[in-house]
Amino acid sequence: MERTLKVQGTRGASMAAVINLSRSNGFTELHIDAVASGPPGLLSYDVVFTDKKKLMEFIGKTDGVY
Predict the structure, then answer these.
(1) What CA–CA distance (Å, rounded) separates 4 from 45?
(2) In 3D, which of 24, 39, 1 has the Cα closest to residue 16?
(3) Alpha-carbon distance values, 41 to 25, 32, 33, 63 (Å)
(4) pTM of the shown model
(5) Residue 52 contacts by C-beta under 8 Å, 6 or more apart in sequence?
(6) Nearest 5°: phi and psi at 47?
(7) CA-based nearest residue to 27, from 1, 7, 48, 45
(8) What CA–CA distance (Å, rounded) separates 30 from 34?
(9) How far, in Å, CA of 49 to CA of 22, rounded?
(10) pLDDT digits (tens, 9 = 90+) for 1-48
């Protein structure tokens, strides 16, 4: 749980947008174990990083804005 970031999207958000956000900040499949979508219609996505350090690095790079 401590490696998971919940991303809440806005209307039109997609898993591809979450992956593109990760890549644009220098995070690849080497840093992320999984990306999963929440229940349909909620536009939420869980991003599981390889370790807590990578999660904190991602939050720092995006200033908490996704």
Answers:
(1) 10
(2) 24
(3) 26, 24, 24, 26
(4) 0.80
(5) 2, 3
(6) -115, 120
(7) 48
(8) 10
(9) 11
(10) 689 999 888 887 888 988 998 999 899 999 999 999 988 878 899 999
